[in-house]
Amino acid sequence: MRSHSGTIIILLFLIFLLPCCKKAQSPKEVLYVQFNNDLSTLIFRNEQFLGFVRTMKNKAELQAEFLKLRMQYKKVEAFTEYFFPTTVRLVNGAPLDEVEDEENAVFEPGGLQVIEELIYTTDSLERDELVRHVR
């Protein structure tokens, strides 16, 4: 009987001691892991939204799914704007043509802002156009 009690005490000790022995992550590592998770979720939500667009039955449901996608983007927006400003134009570009004087270039509208305009301002949805922008 005594060895059984000793085993329980040792197990309890290990249960409470092991978490204390883990190496603490630096704030940089925590931030990296969080950003990576948020970015993976954004990619997943975009694929999920693409499926909704392709099988769309109800505009209100599509708008609700878009809001989930938009909110997920907001979690990574600060980092993407800072570290990947060129890529951001594709993901969250202006809904109008954008002209860059320094580059002598005109960028076609694209991304979440164009998708938002397509699903909220038009009565009839152009599915092919919507799929193109979601992809």
State the main characteristics.
135 residues; mainly alpha; two-stranded antiparallel sheet; 4% strand
Question: Describe it for me?
Answer:
- A hairpin with a 4-residue loop joins β1 and β2 (105-107).
- α2 (27-54) packs antiparallel against α3, α3 packs antiparallel against α4 and α3 (59-83) packs antiparallel against α5 (112-121).
- The longest helix has 28 residues, at 27-54.
- A two-stranded antiparallel sheet has the order 1-2.
- It is mainly alpha-helical.
- It has six helices and two strands.
The overall number of domains is: 1
Helix count equals: 6
The H-and-E topology, N to C, reads as: HHHHEEHH
**Strand order, largest beta sheet:** 1-2
How much beta, percentage-wise?
Answer: under 5%
Choose one word for the global shape.
Answer: elongated
Structural class: mainly alpha
